Amino acid sequence: MPLTVDDSAFRQSVESLDVNTIPQGGTALAEGIDTALTAFKEQDNYKVLVLFTDGEDHEPGAIEAAKRAAEAGLRIYTIGVGTTAGEILRIQDAKGNSDYLRDEQGNAVKSHLDEDLLRRIAGATEGGYYWPLRGAKVMDQLYDQWLAKLPKSEHQEKLVKRYHERYHWPLALALVLLLVETLLPNASEGHPDAREPKRPGQWKR
Questions:
Q1: Which residue in 23, 57, 70, 174 has the fewest CB atoms around it within 10 Å?
Q2: Residues 6+ apart with CB under 8 A from 29
């Protein structure tokens, strides 16, 4: 999603994510780094990118992209997902049936963690670091040791009420009723009681 200070919009985008958000599988680290770099403004003093990946890159140029990012002041943290021994990837088809991800020859695809590449990508940027995603406290360590130390800007969410005038309809109805009232005959005319004023204490039987 575009960079925003709207916390609610960010949470909605995260909650809508699933494995089918990106229909085409594969990893293109160079493209991801370049895309992240263009998301920052020129005057931004602190630029940080956190990559969650197995590092099994299907496109060349990841190291070169990391060097370009370093020249622009981008710091990259890489989080390695998976194991070096490799894991067979499971997927679900449109009908919900479970199967293995297969290559063009029909063989099950095994994803291998490329820690060397992820270390080189992180090392190409000043202050970058690599962590393997093992255990429940990796993200806490990443935040406490690195991200929490970055300067922060305070933003507040503002709720703005925009009023839309809707008085035209009731006003028009009131004018119509007034016009109708002027056209109706006076119901009290011709009534005997209306012609003869009553005095205090006078009762008519």
A1: 23
A2: 51, 53, 55, 57, 59, 62, 65, 117, 121
* Dihedral sign for Cα atoms in the order 172, 177, 180, 186: negative
Tell me what pLDDT residue 82 has.
84
Half-sphere exposure of 78 (CA within 13 A, CB side): 28
pLDDT digit string, tens, across residues 115-161: 999 999 999 999 899 988 887 788 888 888 878 877 766 655 566 77
* Dist. CA 114–CA 83, nearest whole Å: 8
> Which residue bears the tokens 């028009």?
172
Pairing mode of beta strands 74-80, 47-53:
parallel
> Which amino acid does the sequence have at 83?
T
pTM: 0.60
Residues 24-39 as b or e (16 or more Cβ within 10 Å = b): eeebbbbebbeebbee
CA dihedral over 108, 119, 35, 146, signed as positive or negative:
positive
Q: What is the pLDDT of residues 32-91, one digit of tens each?
A: 899 888 888 776 678 899 999 888 877 788 999 999 999 988 999 999 988 888 878 777
Question: Which tokens in the block code for residue 156?
Answer: 């507040």
The continuous run of DSSP H or E covering 110 comes out as strand 110-111
